[in-house]
Amino acid sequence: MKVTLIRHTSVAVASGTCYGQTDVPLRDTFEQEAFNTLQALAGMHFDKVYTSPLSRCVRLATYCGYPDAERDKRLMEINFGEWEMQRFEEIKDPRIQLWYQDYYHVAATGGESFAMQYQRVAAFLDELRKENYTHVALFVHGGVIVCAQIYARILKPEEAFEQLTPYGGVVEIEI
Fold first, then answer.
1. pLDDT category, 158, cuts 50, 70, 90?
2. pTM for this model (two decimals)
3. What was the pLDDT predicted at 160?
4. Long-range contacts of residues 154-163, Cβ cutoff 8 Å, at least 24 apart
5. pLDDT tens across 12-54, in order?
6. Residue 163 burial (CB count, 10 A)
7. 3 state SS for the chain
């Protein structure tokens, strides 16, 4: 099955801000970015379309012609718990140093680790594989795209964030 992963457009959040599952606004450039994404999807036909329930993904799915895309919480970005909406450099929690050393296994305080995010994305993809679809679209977040690429054996966990998909970017995988 072909899975097209579409990352939401850029967010109106200061650079360096930890915003994972916070429902943040999009930048004023949404229309142009979304148009570019729509152009990248031109000619593609999907058997099913899913989206993260966060508004930044729903809005892009709607713009691209999928207002009824099925929302699934497993497609949400990583949960940064108590760190949400703080600038990374201003987080006083001593666990942040542990997280910097091993983000794969160490969870944000009150949140989840990358391994936990991967487990929920993998569970979604495991279920999806049981369906008889040919081509599915997912309107999601950068971390979810990385998880899907690890699942498809395109990336290894240790190189997860070396090639983060740009805002509005489109990635195709086979599962």
1. confident
2. 0.97
3. 80
4. 157/104, 157/114, 157/118, 158/104, 160/104, 160/114
5. 999 999 999 999 999 999 999 999 999 999 999 999 999 999 9
6. 12
7. CEEEEEECCCECCCCCEECCCCCCCECCCHHHHHHHHHHHHCCCCCCEEEECCCHHHHHHHHHCCCCCCEECHHHCCCCCHHHCCEEHHHCCCCHHHHHHHCCCCCCCCCCCCHHHHHHHHHHHHHHHHCCCCCEEEEEECHHHHHHHHHHCCCCCHHHCCCCCCCCCCEEEEEC
- Count of structural domains, the chain: 1
Using DSSP, state whether 20 is helix, strand or coil. coil
Residues listed for the chain: 175
**For residue 137, what are the domain limits?**
2-174
Reduced to 3 states (helix: H, G, I; strand: E, B; else coil), residue 121 is: helix
C-alpha of 50 from chain center: 12
Domain containing residue 165: CATH number: 3.40.50.1240
